Amino acid sequence: MKRIFLTFILMTSLLLSVACVQKGNEGGTTNTGDTIKVGVFADLSGTTASFGQSTKNGIELAVEEINNSGGVLGKKIQLFVEDDQGRPEQAKTVVSKLINQDKVQAVLGEVASTNSLAAAPVAQEAKVPMITPSSTNPKVTQVGDYIFRVCFIDPFQGAVMAKYAANNLNAKTAAIFGDVQSDYSKGLSEVFKQEFAKLGGRIVSEQSYAQTDPDFKGQLTAIRATNPDVIYVPGYYGQVGIIAKQARELGMNIPLLGGDGWDSPDLWKLGGEALKNTYISNHYSVENPAPDIQSFVKAYQAKFGAKPDSLAALAYDAAKVLADALKRAGSADPQKLRDAIANTQNFNGVTGKITINAERNAVKPAVVLELNPAVNSFIYKDTIYPEGMSAPTADTNTNANSSMNMNTMTNGNMNSNMNMSMNSNAINSNAMNANTK
C-alpha cells in the first residue's frame, strides 16, 4: 500500500511538472528545443500576393544565411509561414495560431498596414515581439511596446514626393488621384496635399477611384481639364499600371508620381511603356553599387530568379534585425528580446542604416526612383533624409543609400494641419493618424 501511495505521489509530481512546462511555453515565450521559432504572416494568395511573396522570399534568404553561419545563440531559426490572404480578419487568426499553437517567439509581417493593425494586438497581448518589414501606417507601432517596424512611415514618404515634385520637377500645380478604399492611399494623399501647398504648390484637382473600378478615364478626363504639372497617384500596382496606360491614351504625358505601393514585378506587365516619365518614393535602389546591396541582389537572384524589390529587401532586413537583437539579448526571453529590438542602433541593412526610435519606428532615408519601362527597372534619382539624420560619409560602403548623391530633407515645417512633429531623428508617429499601406 505504501509503495502504491509513493508511486501515486511521484506520478502526480511528474504531471504537475509537465503542466508547468507547457504553461510556461504559452505565447511562444519559451523554447526548450534546438530551434528558435519565428512566425511569418503575409498575403500569399490575395490581391497583394506579389507583396507577400517578396516578403516571404526576403525572410527566407536572410534566415538561410543566418542558419548557414551557425544560427543564433547556438540554435537554428525555424520559420512558420502563414497566408493571411490579404484579409485583416485572417491576419488576426493566423497570428493567433502562430503564437498559441506553433509557439513562435517572434513574428515578422505584414506589408499592408490594415493587416498588421489587425494582428498586432494579438502579439502585444501575448507579449511576443512583432516586426513589420513594410507597414508604413504610423498607427501600427502605436498598438503597443512589442510592435516594431524597419521601414519609414508615410508622413515622411508623402512629404518626400511633394518636395521632389516642387524642387526637382519644378511643379507649380498638381492633381491627386487616390484609392478611396485604401487607407494607405488616403493617408499619403493628405500628406502630399498639405506639404505641396507649403512648398508653394497648388492642388488643382482631387479625384478618387475604387480598387474594383474597371475604367479610370472619367476621372482622368476631369484631371486633364485642370492641366496639372504632375499627378500624384498613391495606390497599389494593380491599379496604377492601368491608370498610367489610360492616362497616356488620353494624351496625358505629364509626370505621374507614386509611392512604394507601386513596387512590384507585376507593375511592368500592367503599365508597359506608359510608365515612362513616372517617379516613386521607395526604400532602396537595387541599382546601388554598394557591395552589401549587390551581394544581397546577387544572392536573391540566384535563389529566386528575379531582382529583389523593396519589399524583399525590407523583409530581409527585418529578419536580420531580429537575429541581431536575439544575439544582443542573449536569449529568446520575450522581455529581453523586446528590449534588444528597441535598442537597435545603426544596424547596417540593405535598405539603409536602421535605428529604432522611441516610437519603435525606423529612422532612415527614402530614395526617389524614375521608372524605366524599356528595361523594366528603376533609375535612382535622389536620396532624401529626415531632419536630424545626415548622409553617410563618402567612404561608407555598407549602407544601402551610401554611395549615391545625397540630399537632406528638412521637415521642420511639418506640423499643425498634419499633426506631425519631428524628434531629433524622425517624425513622431504618435502625432499622425493617417491610415496608410
Q: Would you write up a description of this structure?
A:
The chain is α/β, with parallel strands linked by helices. The protein folds into three domains: 26 residues; 194 residues, 3-Layer(aba) Sandwich (Rossmann fold), CATH 3.40.50.2300; 195 residues, Rossmann fold (3-Layer(aba) Sandwich). It contains twelve helices and 16 strands. The strands form three sheets. The chain has an eight-stranded mixed sheet, with helices on both faces. Strand 11 and strand 12 form a beta hairpin. Helix 5 crosses helix 6. The termini are far apart. The N terminus and C terminus are likely disordered.
Question: TL;DR?
Answer:
By secondary structure, the protein is α/β, with parallel strands linked by helices. It has helices at 2-24, 49-68, 88-100, 113-126, 154-168, 183-198, 217-224, 237-249, 265-271, 291-304, 310-329, 334-342, and strands at residues 35-42, 76-83, 106-108, 130-132, 147-149, 173-179, 202-209, 230-232, 256-258, 278-282, 347-349, 352-356, 362-363, 366-372, 377-385, 406-408.
